[in-house]
Write a structure and sequence with these properties.
Helix content: 25-40%
Order of helices and strands: EEEHEEHHEH
Strand content: 15-25%
Radius of gyration: 20 Å
Low-confidence stretches: none
Number of helices: 4
Distance between the termini: 32 Å
Number of strands: 6
Structural class: alpha+beta
Length: 144
């Protein structure tokens, strides 16, 4: 895992697993297209100060495990990944225009799951230690 990010006001380690697919799940991410797609995603991550912890480009979808800043949001990052790579791939590989005549290379939507070095159970156990014996409010919001 990557180190924590810090600046003058915050410390964070935000990681996410992202998945998105080609439109109609066409298996077009092969050969030079696959290599160029990987290179474009790496360039976008470098420009946006996003660290790729691990990534996979399959023939019809992309997986990325990333570390990102707290000032960034996932939907904007995915929009940049999909938008910039779609535009460049279609410009550089004219054969894609025959299959994707509407200029939409990626399918609508994406999957996103937060990841980290601790589990939900670990967080809940830690927070439960703050409950006072007389706090029987029956709520998950504990008053210390």
């Amino acid at each position: 895992m990557s180190e924590q990010r810090s600046n003058g006001h915050s410390v964070s380690q935000l990681t996410a697993h992202l998945v998105w697919s080609t439109k109609y799940r066409y298996p077009v991410l092969t050969g030079d297209i696959k290599l160029r797609c990987r290179k474009l995603l790496i360039q976008i991550c470098e420009a946006e100060d996003v660290e790729i912890l691990k990534g996979v480009i399959s023939k019809d979808h992309v997986h990325m495990h990333i570390d990102y800043r707290p000032s960034q949001n996932i939907s904007d990052l995915v929009k940049k990944f999909k938008g910039r790579s779609s535009r460049k791939l279609q410009q550089e590989f004219p054969e894609l225009k025959k299959r994707y005549w509407g200029r939409h290379f990626w399918a609508i939507g994406y999957g996103c799951w937060s990841t980290g070095n601790i589990t939900d159970e670990m967080v809940n156990e830690y927070l439960e230690h703050h409950r006072k014996p007389d706090d029987r409010g029956g709520t998950n919001f504990i008053i210390e």
